[in-house]
Design a protein that fits this description.
By secondary structure, this protein is mainly beta. The protein is globular, with a radius of gyration of 12 Å. Strands 3-2-1-5-4 form a 5-stranded antiparallel sheet, with helices on one face. The chain has one domain.
C-alpha cells in the first residue's frame, strides 16, 4: 500500500519583502522558506512534493498550501 507525507505551507505578513508575505512550513514556524512562492514550490517539487490543494485550513485571512509526496 502506498504511503504519503503531507506538508502545509502558511504565509505571514511581512511588509519589507516583495509581495508582503513570508512562507513557512507549519511543522517549523521558526524557519522561513522565503517570500517567492514560485521558487519555494519549484524547490519543494524537485524534492518530490506536489501541491494537492489550497484552502483556509487555519481559519485565518491567508490561504494555506497543502503539499503531498509518496514516502
Amino acid at each position: 500500500m502506498d504511503k504519503f507525507e503531507y506538508r502545509i505551507l502558511s504565509g505571514r505578513d511581512q511588509l519589507d519583502v516583495p509581495g508582503g508575505v513570508v512562507w513557512y512550513a507549519t511543522s517549523d514556524l521558526n524557519e522561513s522558506l522565503g517570500s517567492d512562492v514560485t521558487a519555494i514550490l519549484n524547490k519543494l517539487g524537485a524534492d518530490g512534493w506536489q501541491m494537492t490543494g489550497i484552502g483556509d485550513i487555519g481559519f485565518s485571512k491567508r490561504t494555506e498550501i497543502v503539499l503531498m509526496r509518496r514516502s
